[in-house]
C-alpha cells in the first residue's frame, strides 16, 4: 500500500472511530437516516453502487476490498459492509447502524436489504474471478 492510500485509510478509520463521540441527538439522527436508506431498495441500490464503484475514496476502497477479500467463510461481509456504509454515508456509528437494522426494519425489509448487499458482493466476486 502506498503512502497516499495509507494516509487515506488512517483518516477514514479515525473518522469512523470518532462517530461514537458525536452527540446523542446526532447519533440518533444518523441512525434514522441510515434506516431510511435500508428501507428504500432504490436508494440502497444507489448507495451500494457508489460504494462498490469506490466513490468514497481510496481509504474506503481499501477497507471495502479488505472485507471482500477476506477468505474466511464465517465472516459476515454484509454486516461489515453495512456498518461501513452507515459510517461513510450517514456518519452513523456501528452500534447505531445495528440498531437501525434490527430495531427499525421489518423482516421483509431486512431480507430485501440483505439480498441487495449479497448481490453486490457476488458481482464483485465474479468480476475478480473473470480478471484472475
Query: How would you characterize the largest beta sheet?
Result: none
Mean pLDDT: 94
* Helical content class: over 70%
Please state the CA-atom Rg, rounded to the nearest Å: 15 Å
Order of helices and strands: HHHHHHH
Q: What fraction of the residues are assigned to beta strands by DSSP?
A: under 5%
Number of domains: 1
State the distance separating the first and last CA atoms. Answer: 20 Å
Low-confidence stretches: none
Shape: globular
Number-wise, the strands total: 0
Which structural class is indicated by helix and strand composition?
Answer: mainly alpha
Number of H/I helices: 7
Characterize the structure shown.
The chain contains seven helices and no strands. With 132 residues, it is an all-alpha fold. The protein has one domain. Helix 2 crosses helix 6 and helix 5 crosses helix 7. It starts with a helix and ends with a helix. The mean pLDDT is 94.
Amino acid at each position: 500500500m502506498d503512502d497516499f492510500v495509507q494516509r487515506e485509510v488512517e483518516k477514514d478509520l479515525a473518522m469512523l472511530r470518532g462517530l461514537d463521540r458525536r452527540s446523542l441527538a446526532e447519533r440518533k439522527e444518523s441512525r434514522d437516516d441510515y434506516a431510511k436508506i435500508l428501507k428504500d431498495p432504490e436508494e440502497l441500490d444507489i448507495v451500494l453502487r457508489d460504494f462498490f464503484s469506490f466513490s468514497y475514496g481510496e481509504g474506503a476502497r481499501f477497507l471495502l476490498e479488505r472485507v471482500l477479500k477476506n477468505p474466511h467463510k464465517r465472516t459476515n461481509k454484509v454486516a461489515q459492509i453495512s456498518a461501513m456504509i452507515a459510517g461513510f454515508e450517514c456518519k452513523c456509528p456501528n452500534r447505531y447502524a445495528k440498531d437501525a437494522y434490527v430495531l427499525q426494519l421489518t423482516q421483509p425489509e431486512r431480507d430485501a436489504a440483505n439480498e441487495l448487499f449479497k448481490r453486490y458482493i457476488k458481482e464483485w466476486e465474479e468480476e475478480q474471478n473473470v480478471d484472475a
